[in-house]
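Much of what follows relies on a compact textual record of a protein's fold. The record below shows the convention in full:
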Amino acid sequence: MDLSLSTRTVGDRTVVEVGGEIDVYTAPKLREQLVELVNDGNHHLVVDMERVDFLDSTGLGVLVGGLKRVRAQEGSLRLVCNQERILKIFRITGLTKVFPIHESVDEAIAAND
């Protein structure tokens, strides 16, 4: 399975729609996208993971790296995830305390966390 990425702007947020698998093979593609967005001045990101089928530790590392990158610019990174199997990974690793995780893109954009 491959990784699909697309971005769009909603207000002052940049939404990164991710689909497929985020693993050791595809995570570098996501990392490049996040780095490019932050370097281009997009410091408030919403990563939409509704179409993600699989997430491994490499993918988690990329998301944590993206969070550190935006925080260094006084920005934010919110996740959209409503799949129990993916949410379980965030719970087990304790990352639910690190990332604001929302049910929908609209909810993530409207949130003040």
Notes: The chain has a mean pLDDT of 96.
